[in-house]
Design brief:
Length: 110
């Protein structure tokens, strides 16, 4: 099961990187069309980079918390943080993805 969780995290990271690339491209296009000055363009790009960095760190933090509470079955912690339902939903979705991956692999082999 640990191997599947790593695959899930890899998927999340790839999605975030694709989102970052798209955001940077959009900022470049918008600033180019608007004829904005170099400093304004630099500031917009830096803001987009920092927003993406914060999103990545929040996702990493969330993943670390999820892994810890799942592995150690920290029900008291999840109840105090009011995230127990969310943790269960993520675990169910993760199990569904593993099942879909298995089924996809099987279909591709046929």
């Amino acid at each position: 099961m640990e191997e599947n969780k790593i695959k899930l995290w890899d998927r999340i990271q790839r999605g975030m990187e694709a989102g970052f690339d798209a955001a940077m491209s959009a900022v470049h296009t918008i600033t180019e069309k608007a004829g904005e000055g170099i400093e304004l363009t630099r500031l917009r790009r830096e803001k987009a980079r920092l927003e993406t960095q914060v999103t990545r760190r929040l996702a990493e933090l969330g993943n670390a918390v999820f892994e810890k509470v799942s592995k150690d079955r920290l029900d008291e912690v999840t109840e105090k943080l009011e995230i127990k339902d969310m943790v269960l939903e993520i675990a169910q979705d993760e199990a569904r993805m593993v099942d879909i991956d298995r089924r996809l692999k099987k279909e591709l082999e046929e």
